[in-house]
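## tool: complex_structure
## caller: assistant
## args:
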Amino acid sequence: MLGVGAHRTRNLPTRSELLPLPIGEMTWTLTDHRGRSVRPADWAGRPVMVFFGFTWCPDVCPTTLSDISLWLEELGADADRMIVALISVDPERDTPDVLADYVSNFDQRILGLTGSADEVAQAAADFRATYRRVAKDAGDYTIDHTAGVFLFHPDGRFVSIIDFHEDRRFAVPKIRRTLS
Amino acid sequence: MKHFLLAAALILSAPAVMACETVTIGDLTIEHAWSKATIGAGRPGVFYVEITNAGSVDDALIGIATPAARMPMLHETVVKDGIASMPHAMSIPVPAGQNVQLSPGGYHGMLMGLTTALKEGDSFPVTLSLKKAGEVTVNVDVLSLRAEGPDCADAGQ
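## result:
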């Protein structure tokens, strides 16, 4: 297991600190769009696809969720066992109800996950995802965030990232590799 | 060739969808204006369009205005080191002889302060301000939140 127990140096991150933890080593707790509590152990033995975003995001997030929906359609029933989740980086505005409304517009297999600010911060840390609130006019804000889609093997190992707007010809085979 | 002409005739006679309308101003052609449905009016809407400059003078899109939103702005989605950000774009170049797309994952109009939620099937006008060509208004079709673009015969997608 790369880097586990290694001494951490703040200024000089090791390679392992840049890669998401295996699902089984993650410690977050989040709430899904149906109000149910979700922990990493609930995903044991299933392939996982995770994306960080927020429902106020006008361009990147709906585009990614549209892409994911198309990938899932192409994969059909093969992807039914896959956990597909949008983790909100905007827990202040993205309550489970808001997420339920939002994910209902996309493939029904997509889960919306949110939590307290600390819970979301823990999830982002486990996935090595980053997000940063950017102030806009009149008290409004937007959030810069990791845009890639994380893929994990059923045993919890991190497999790869699908980059933002990556061509379906490359994305779908990447997902297929996590399904077997 | 015969088949091609027949196909072209069928396409022309198909019911027009607004997003597939073409508006011209000077040497500029503006088409494929579309938006996505929003959940409520609290979230910003988005505006996409394609501008082709057939002339020999560079132009630039410097602003948008619409009765559908109090604060429409031009933005660009930038993904750097895997992090997506959305800086304000003061001006979007429309160089001579080139085609510029405001499209998902790139330049886009962000419609903040929507006056009402955007519903699939609705349409609303957006006035584009171009540095050289001046102002031109296009009708914008609201597609589903899942849409990746208008389904126009000539969209080439």
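## assistant note: DSSP finds one helix and twelve strands in chain B. The interface with chain A takes residues 36-37, 39, 42-46, 71, 75, 77, 79, 82-86, 104-105, 108, 110-112, 144-148 of chain B (CB under 8 Å). Handing back to user.
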